[in-house]
Amino acid sequence: HQGTVVRLNILISSEGNVKDSLVESSSGFEELDEEARRVFRSCRFRPAMTSEGIAFETWFKVSHRWNFESS
Q1: Where are any strands of DSSP class E within 1-71?
Q2: Which H helix or E strand runs over 47?
Q3: Which among 31, 44, 48, 63 could bridge 58 via Cys, Cβ 3.0 to 4.6 Å?
Q4: What is the pLDDT of residue 71?
């Protein structure tokens, strides 16, 4: 699992919450992909804004690299 990357598309609401997420590129491990989706759902983001300062919903791409250390 060391160094595996999952790429997600996340839908950020006009309030900055994650409304949805889709796996764009799997890490190769479904459990890690789903955990990345779960982690990003708990995040808050600054929403996209129009030039007039009005927040709007938009899709955003993120990547997460899993690194594990042996104990």
Answers
A1: 4-12, 18-25, 48-49, 55-56, 58-66
A2: none
A3: 48
A4: 62
- Under 8 Å between Cβ of 5 and 28: no
Q: Which long-range contacts (CB under 8 A, 24 or more apart) does 29-38 make?
A: 29/1, 29/4, 32/1, 32/4, 32/6, 32/66, 33/6, 36/6, 36/8, 36/64, 36/66, 37/8
pLDDT in tens, 4-26: 899 999 999 999 999 999 999 99
Across 35-59, b (16+ Cβ under 10 Å) vs e yields ebbeebeeeebebeeeeeeeeeeee
d(CA 28, CA 15): 32
- Alpha helices per DSSP H over 2-68: 30-41
In one letter, which amino acid is 53? G
